[in-house]
Each structure stands twice: as C-alpha cells, then as structure tokens.
Amino acid sequence: MFDIDNLDAEMTWTYLGNSQLTVDITNRIATITTPSPDWNGAETITFTATDPGALNSSDQATFTVTATNDAPVVSDIPDQTIAEGLFSISLDLGVRKAISIVQESLNLLCPKERTDASLLVDGICGPATLASLTSILKAQESSYLLKIMYLLQGMHYIRYLRKAPDQRTYVKQWLKIMHISIDRRKRSVPATPTGLKIE
Predict the structure, then answer these.
(1) Is the pLDDT of residue 186 over 80?
(2) pLDDT band at 182 (very low <50, low <70, confident <90, very high)
(3) How many CB atoms lie within 10 A of CB 171?
(4) First to last CA, the chain
(5) What is the phi-psi region of residue 91: left when phi exceeds 0, alpha when psi lies from -120 to 50, beta otherwise?
(6) For 110-183, where are the E strands, in sequence order?
(7) pLDDT > 90? residue 92
(8) What's the CA angle centered on 24, arms 22 and 30, to 5 degrees?
(9) Distance (Å, whole) CA 11 – CA 136
(10) Per-domain residue ranges for the chain?
(11) pLDDT confidence bin for 189, thresholds 50/70/90
(12) Cα–Cα distance measured from residue 137 to residue 174, given in angstroms and rounded to the nearest whole number
C-alpha cells in the first residue's frame, strides 16, 4: 500500500468477507487464524485502506487451507491383565461375583493406614472401586491384585465343593485350565484361559 499524501500510520484498515477465518490487523500487519486446527476451506477477504480524507482503496485476497490426512497416534496401551482376569472370572462366576472378588482383593491389598478407604464388597463397580483400582495400577501392583483375585476364585470353588461334592468334575476342569505346577526352586501358577502367568 502506498499513499503519496499520507503516512502509512495514518491509514485505517478494514476488512470484510470472512465468515470462518478470524482477522486481526495490528500495526498494519494482518493475522489470519482458522477456527480450529482441523479446519479446511477457502475464503476471500477484501482489505480496504482509508486515508484521513476518506479516500480508500481495496484489494481482495483468497486464503485457502488444504485438508490433510493426519496419521493416527497410538498412546501407551495400559496393562490389560486385570481386565483379562476379570473377564475370565466373569465367564465362570458371573459379573457381579467377579467384581466382588476384585473389591475384596483391593481391600486385601490396601495398606493398613488406609483402612478408612475399604470398599464395600457389593459387586457394583462404582467410582470408589474404580478409584481404588486406578491407585493399584498406578502403583504397578496389578500382578499382586491378579494373584489374589485367582486365589479368591479358588477359595470360592473350594467352598462350593464342600457344599456340592458332585461338582468335582467342573472344579477339576478349572484346575486343569490353571495348569498348577510346583517345583523345588520356584512355585508358579501359569494361569487361566487368557494365557496369563501368575508368579
């Protein structure tokens, strides 16, 4: 822009024609902003410079933002062992019993100084259960939780067998799936139908 009669600082700048783009003119510099990082399209904006005598000149500019296909970003996938264990127990005992086992396991892992935070073992996965589970996962104690869950599942089957000895076949099938093996150096319980290994 050039005006033989007036300085640049004496010019008044205006614009029109934008509907999505945002325009800011400061010290004769126009900054054009898209409404969001993913916006694409084109807009033609007319810029007008007006001098102190009300004479003006206009010019159009077309701003085009081309759409790009951004690559997906996969963040760290959290530990799924508890979810897999819960799924396995749910298949055998039902969802509510499985959640009760998780709640009881969380209570057993809870430090003594947090006895006030003990969960109600009601088989309902509410905010308190999720908060307690999150704290265990953040403390990287999921392997301990999983072991206790399977131990409690085994205790359930033992109690069940005492009441209904005719269910031995069912319990034996579960024990086969657990692949319990013990040696002199190390005791391990390679796990459940999900292929997990408890050590």
Answers:
(1) no
(2) very low
(3) 16
(4) 77
(5) alpha
(6) 181-182
(7) no
(8) 110
(9) 65
(10) 8-65, 81-165
(11) very low
(12) 27
Closest of 171, 173, 191, 172 to residue 181, by C-alpha: 191
- The angle formed by the CA atoms of residues 73, 78 and 79, to the nearest 5 degrees, is 145
* Backbone φ and ψ of 133, nearest 5°: -65, -40
Q: How far is CA 190 from the centre of its chain?
A: 29
On the 0-12 / 13-18 / 19+ scale of CB atoms within 10 A, 82 is buried
Half-sphere exposure of 89 (CA within 13 A, CB side): 27
pLDDT tens-digit readout, 3-50: 788 887 888 899 999 999 999 998 888 899 999 988 999 999 999 999
Residue 163 CA to residue 171 CA, distance in Å, equals 13
**Read out DSSP for 142-162?**
HHHHHHHHHHHHHHHHHHHHH
Mean of all residue pLDDT scores within the chain: 81
Residue 37 corresponds to which tokens in the numbers above?
């990082």
**Sequence-ordered strand ranges (E) for 99-192:** 181-182, 187-190
Six-digit token pair at 58?
Answer: 């206009």
| Count of residues making up the chain | 199
Mind listing the pLDDT tens digit for each residue in 133-173? 888 888 878 888 888 998 999 899 888 889 888 888 888 88
